[in-house]
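Re: the request from the purification team.
They wanted to know what the chain is likely to look like in 3D before they choose a buffer screen. I agreed to run a prediction and write the result into the notebook, where they can find it.
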Amino acid sequence: MDEAKPSTSYEGFDSVLPDTKDLVKRLFDAVDIVQEIQKPLQKMAELDVVYQAAMREVERVQDILNEGLMGMNREQVDEMFDILENELRMAQHLAFWKSGVMFDVDTKLQNLIGRQTDPQQSKQQVTKPKGCRSKRQAPTARENIRRIESDTRSQSVVKVKGKDSPSPPAVSDQFLSGRRKKIKVPEMSEGRSIQKKRGAGRPRLPRKPRQAISAVTETVENENNLDPLYCLCRQVSYGDMILCENKRCNEWYHFPCVQLRQKPKGKWYCPHCRGDRCDMINPDLVD
């Protein structure tokens, strides 16, 4: 009998191979899709971490605001004020720059107007009542300076007249309890004093003209202009003032000009010498 030989035909494999190739192709496509989806998912996870941190910070700030300043310790209060100070520093620099420009313009304008007007007219302009000002509005620093200068100027004029020679009746302005009161100087004629000393029968000497009075006021104004000037506004000292801690600066500043209401604790540096904070000196100025 003839032995049975194994079959060498590949019948059936032709139908299986195309299905396997298609399955492998689909698996590779699925792997590519998973890799493409993994990148945005990872980015979303990173954003979620940042979002959760931001939400925790918001909740912390909300809890602090709910508790109020009374429930905060000293370090937290100092930290909050440091943040507020950093935010306001830029506004202060702009305010300083604006005040300096306005002061320069006002000074030049006053110099130009003062050359064309009489001292009496300028004095009347200073003593003019300000009816348009509201009751709640406080006087500005410039008005306080003008008031002090006019007060000292009038008092110095009366002193000079009393020392040099008798003069015709004059009226001096003095500030008493925030209001002006006119005090008349007792009348002393030059002729009467001469008659008492040298005897009667002498004719009275004529009074001095008003030009002499204006010359005295001009000399007094020149003496007042020699007073030292301070601060960013370059005015005389008045009110509360603070000294810069920088030894090279050694400049005094008015409280309103540097946005201060009371003396700060610790060291204080002026806008020209301070660093990131008002109690820290600029590193460029340190040796």
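For the purification team: The two ends are 117 Å apart (CA to CA).
Please add any questions underneath this entry.
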